[in-house]
TrEMBL record, chain A:
Parts of the chain that traverse the membrane: 12-36, 73-94, 115-136, 165-185, 228-247, 275-297
CC per GO annotation: plasma membrane
InterPro entries tied to this protein: ABC_transporter_permease, MetI-like, MetI-like_sf
CDD domains named in the record: TM_PBP2 (cd06261)
Family: Belongs to the binding-protein-dependent transport system permease family.
Name recorded for this polypeptide: Sugar ABC transporter permease
Species whose genome carries this gene: Streptomyces angustmyceticus
Keywords: Cell membrane, Membrane, Transmembrane, Transmembrane helix, Transport
UniProtKB/TrEMBL annotation, chain B:
UniProt domain ABC transmembrane type-1: residue ranges: 113-307
Sequence segments annotated as region (Disordered): 1-44
Cell membrane as UniProt keyword: yes
Family: Belongs to the binding-protein-dependent transport system permease family.
Topology in the lipid bilayer: Multi-pass membrane protein
Gene Ontology biological-process entries: transmembrane transport
CDD domains in UniProt: TM_PBP2
Keywords associated with the record: Cell membrane, Membrane, Transmembrane, Transmembrane helix, Transport
Native organism: Streptomyces angustmyceticus
Top-level division of the source organism's lineage: Bacteria
Localization in the cell: Cell membrane
Keyword Cell membrane in record: yes
UniProt name for this protein: Sugar ABC transporter permease
């Protein structure tokens, strides 16, 4: 029996673990090693250069532009997305007028709104990115055409071509794509909050703003925090890469205004043939990610002690 | 945000109830509609009414913001290039179905669709099977190193994938897996395992032990118990995580962009779409591009509308845990 158990465990774990080790673990470990070499990524030869790659980071203006943009996304994207998600979810679940029995209630058709809002979430990033790229197109895009139609023909921004606003344009697409998920997620959380809480608060004369900040938000805090980490990782990794790479001119431009860390790693590796240096950028990205997660968890914990 | 726009200007919102209007019900030709929105009872507190109009206004605005771009893409896919440039917001004068056939055949969208089907089909089955196996063992058996293996898997959720890509490219190259269906399938499985193992091991832990024990006492082997007893019992969890993985793998862009660049006919749908956008942009076939975009978009949206409940449950299950 015991013998059979270990053979079973080994048999069941072997294949998943092997695939995972080969394609996920080993590349991560190798990446850290490569970051100390001058590897081009094209030929098998490389030599150890110690911390040279990391020293070079400090003098690399594009790297700092990418750090700045990535951190901007990291700080703003979760705030904007989660606030909008909370706002709409609250509207849907609590914003309705009072009906005879229920103390609080959602607006009519809240189910339909949720279905609609979730649409972008099931679309792939390239689809969303391309849609917005067309919409932003200065000559034929929907946005400038709209401006013309409402008589604002003189306001014809260059959108993605303007270094001042390019990053915001990309960010708007990312917000658009993700808000629906949080509306649904927070709605699920809100519907599990006991109705008596609201009843008691309303009897005490609390208005909706108060009930939101005193009841809904604190009780949802765990979910908000999870969402925060999720959005943060999104802002730093795959999603940011795809949006910027597809949408921005260059990509990463104009004038590095939309350059983000994951895209810079990709460009240094596959465009410039500087795989060693690229992995050093990747390691710095890893550090930013870890610091971010630690900070969010830390702040979240302190917040929870209040009640 | 444009939240300040007067909600009464929008379609779908009850008219004639400006913010601040204290009168509970305004008589008017639209009385029927009025009743639909406001229940006639409850003292009709001013706050309630104002808030209701306001919230509907805001909600409708966001609803439009979500649907307009999608509709715009679908409508544009039926126009010809001059119409797309000349009147971006107008309706097509003639329905140009040829855009669709051009995108499907000439621009290879059909082939890309097929590629995505193969790769996602293979990797979804693999992910679910291997993920469930690993999760089951980690959740229900005590053995030395259990926690270590578990955290090894789960840790993979937090690392930036882009960091692993460079070495991964060369791992794949050395194993001659670049630009192959099975290579991509293996990678998709590997990068889906962290969440799958995390979610399913939590799920297996909540299942009652007595049933599995009964099966073992009846003489079923561990393997048989897993396949005939535990897997069927875990069906709800498998469906949730299956939907999550399906959408994630179907929409995967980063991995194929790096690992699948050799053979233009082997592109995934997402990749193919972007390649199409780049090349058509130069060729100027915008209508074909919109058709391609719509081809990629509509099946997923249709599937979502049909399986709406399951999709939402599957995608939110992980974040709520």
């Amino acid at each position: 029996m015991k013998h059979g158990k270990y053979r079973f465990i080994a048999g069941f774990l072997a294949l998943p673990l092997a695939i995972y080790a080969i394609f996920v673990i080993s590349p991560f470990v190798q990446a850290i090693y490569y970051s100390f070499t001058d590897w081009t990524g094209l030929s098998p030869d490389m030599k150890m250069v110690g911390f040279d790659n990391y020293a070079r980071l400090f003098r690399d203006d594009v790297f700092w532009a990418a750090v700045g943009n990535s951190v901007t996304l990291l700080l703003l994207l979760p705030v904007v997305t989660l606030s909008l998600g909370l706002f709409f979810a609250f509207m849907l679940n609590v914003g309705g007028r009072r009906r005879r029995k229920a103390v609080i209630g959602g607006v009519r058709g809240s189910g339909a709104y949720k279905i609609l809002y979730f649409f972008p979430q099931v679309l792939s990033v390239p689809i969303v990115a391309l849609l917005f790229q067309f919409a932003y197109n200065p000559e034929s895009g929907a946005l400038n055409a709209f401006f013309k139609a409402v008589g604002l023909g003189r306001v014809q921004p260059d959108w993605l071509g303007d270094p001042q606003i390019a990053l915001w344009c990309v960010m708007a697409a990312m917000v658009w794509a993700n808000v629906g998920f949080y509306v649904v997620l927070f709605s699920a959380g809100m519907s599990s909050i006991p109705k008596d809480f609201y009843e008691a608060a309303l009897l005490d004369g609390a208005n909706r703003l108060n009930t939101f900040f005193r009841i809904t938000l604190p009780l949802l805090w765990d979910t908000v925090q999870t969402g925060w980490i999720y959005m943060g990782i999104l802002a730093l990794d795959v999603s940011a890469f795809a949006f910027v790479q597809i949408m921005s001119v260059g990509p990463g431009g104009p004038d590095y205004a939309t350059e983000v860390l994951p895209l810079y790693v990709y460009q240094k590796t596959f465009r410039d043939g500087q795989a060693g240096y690229a992995t050093a950028i990747g390691v710095s990205l890893l550090i930013v990610t870890l610091v971010f997660s630690a900070v969010v968890l830390r702040l979240g914990r302190r917040e929870r002690l209040e009640f | 945000m444009s939240a300040q726009t007067d909600p009464a200007d929008l379609p779908g919102v009850t008219k004639r109830q400006g913010p601040g209007s204290g009168t509970p019900r305004l008589p008017g030709p639209r009385g029927g509609r009025d009743r639909k929105v406001g229940a006639p009872s409850g003292g009709g507190s001013g706050e309630g009414r104002v808030l209701n109009v306001f919230s509907h206004g805001v909600l409708v605005i966001w609803g439009l913001l979500v649907t307009m771009p999608l509709l715009w893409a679908v409508v544009s896919s039926f126009k010809d290039d001059t119409e797309i440039f000349g009147s971006p917001w107008g309706l097509p004068s003639v329905l140009h179905f040829d855009n669709w056939s051009r995108a499907w055949d000439k621009a290879n969208m059909g082939q890309y669709f097929f590629n995505s089907l193969i790769v996602v089909g293979g990797s979804l089955i693999g992910t679910m099977l291997l993920g469930a196996m690993a999760a089951y063992v980690l959740a229900r058996f005590d053995f030395p190193g259990n926690r270590f293996v578990y955290f090894l898997f789960v840790g993979g959720m937090g690392f930036p994938v882009i960091l692993a890509l460079v070495p991964l490219f060369f791992v794949m190259k050395n194993m001659a897996l670049l630009d192959t269906y099975h290579g991509l399938i293996l990678v998709y499985i590997a990068y889906s395992l962290p969440f799958t193992v995390f979610f399913l091991s939590g799920f297996f832990r909540t299942l009652p032990t007595s049933v599995a024990e009964a099966a073992l006492i009846d003489g079923a082997s561990h393997t048989r118990t897993f396949f005939q007893v535990m897997l069927p019992m875990a069906k709800p969890g498998l469906i949730s995580v299956g939907i999550f993985n399906f959408l994630g793998q179907w929409n995967q862009y980063l991995l194929p962009t790096v690992l699948n660049v050799g053979d233009p006919d082997k592109k995934m749908l997402t990749q193919g779409l972007v390649a199409l956008a780049v090349s058509q942009g130069y060729k100027g076939d915008w209508s074909g591009l919109f058709a391609g975009l719509t081809i990629a978009m509509l099946p997923v949206l249709a599937a979502y509308i049909v399986f709406q409940r399951q999709v939402v449950a599957g995608l939110t299950a992980g974040a709520l845990k």
